[in-house]
Write a structure and sequence with these properties.
Number of domains: 1
Distance between the termini: 51 Å
Number of helices: 3
Order of helices and strands: HHH
Largest sheet: none
């Protein structure tokens, strides 16, 4: 229980809520960044796959479109995982200080991570 009934001053309760919302916004910014990296990687792969069907090219050098796409998606997934871990740690610390609801941003991050893993696997298996 929070608030005056739990002995927490209203100003402290509001400060905790503002901090929690700041953490939510930060995680959502990381979700947007990861989504951009994942979708950009997948788009590059599909674009070059389309071009390769039109006019096949032998070899793509050291870093072809498939590897580049996997790297982009991998970076997006890694950034999302690290940001989610940090967010959960910070929210847990806030919850110990004064409570607060669970994070919906974490649910969105998990859904985007699932989508990114699906893209990573489909490119890895050349689907």
């Amino acid at each position: 229980m929070t608030g005056p009934a739990a002995g927490i001053p209203t100003s402290t309760e509001l400060a905790i809520e503002r901090t929690r919302l700041a953490h939510e916004r930060t995680l959502m910014a990381w979700v947007r960044t990861a989504t951009s990296l994942i979708s950009f990687g997948f788009t590059i792969y599909k674009f070059f796959q389309f071009l390769d069907k039109e006019a096949p090219v032998e070899g793509h050098g050291l870093l072809g479109p498939r590897r580049f796409a996997l790297i982009m998606i991998g970076i997006g997934l890694t950034a999302l995982a690290l940001a989610t871990i940090e967010h959960r740690r910070q929210v847990r610390a806030l919850r110990q200080a004064g409570g607060g609801p669970y994070s919906l941003a974490t649910v969105v991050a998990a859904l985007i991570a699932c989508l990114g893993l699906l893209g990573f696997v489909s490119i890895s298996l050349r689907l």
